[in-house]
Amino acid sequence: MVSSNSELAYNTKIEGDVVVTRADAVINWIRSNSVWPMPMGLACCAIELMATASSRFDIARFGAEVFRFSPRQADCMIVAGTVTYKMAPHLRRIYDQMAEPKWVIAMGACASSGGMYRSYATLQGVDRIVPVDVYISGCPPRPEALLDALIKLQAKMGTDRSAKRLMTA
Amino acid sequence: MSAPADSLLALKQAHPLVTDRPSLDHPALDVPADQVVTVLQSLRDQAGFDFLVDLTAIDQGEGASPRFTVVYHLFSTTHLSYVRVATACPGGDDATAPSVTGLWPGANWHEREAFDMFGIRFTGHPDLRRILMWEGYPHHPLRKEFPLAGIETTLPDLEVVAETGTKVIAAPMAGGPFVASPGEINLTDAEPRAKDESWNERNEKPE
Ligand code: SF4
Hints:
By secondary structure, chain A is of the alpha/beta class.
């Protein structure tokens, strides 16, 4: 758990049954501990993504086990694999269909920079078509690296001015 | 089933324009383009080469004549041997070749790939569209004059282009292409790397 409970300032002895907190802290705490990933598994990295999701590495420990293949139900796109130019527009469309707030993890060398595919067919980094929050190095990255990226993303979610954004949206 | 050598000999007698093609492994034949379908058919029906393993093409480079050669690899599931058939395509840059989808339905996608990568038009193909690159891509990437890094062009989806301002760019080669070194050298040296590391995106390539 990234945003620690002390942020929520809950102490029954002093406060009684009342919890005092900031709206941002609550919203970010909820969001960051129930990330629903959109698995954009495009190449070999997707195998590591699957390993991360299954029992040995168990992404459920970080609250992100609900993989959804429908962009409407997902809030974090994990781009795991080589993005070809032919695939790129579809990836962007799926991203556009995800509801706000949404995040993107670029998993592996290919998604981050085109990787070893310096060729006519490969998009040279998925950040050319979608905004990326966390990049993961490696070819492929180990599942631990993906978990680390998820923790980093949770930390980043923790700094979001969510309440203000909700009010002004 | 007769032995492959006999059946190939009989085939060459029946088609005098069919010649032997230099080959290091399997028997190989050069066949004129207008006879290739009948030759492949008799290889399939009389000589027992019933399986089309692969269909690919060779580009001899701009200005060569003939420029493109289509190569068929056949396998016999009865006498377990291979034969290779090559046919030079008429018509330099806009080469054509007869489609063999009538003989092997599996040739369909192979021919689409050869069309996509080399621009060879297969006459009689039921659905000759690109298969790897997208519809409307202006180049044929396996042609000799096409650079590995690619040529700047537009993405397939214009709405996404308008949204993101991204286009297909020539990939930064950074001293590449990145190739493994063959042979018995230690693994660190053999690792795929840029052959020329004296230049990259930031330092110009010295002339
Ligand atoms: S980074 Fe490596 S493992 Fe991941 S998709 Fe690219 S080539 Fe495959």
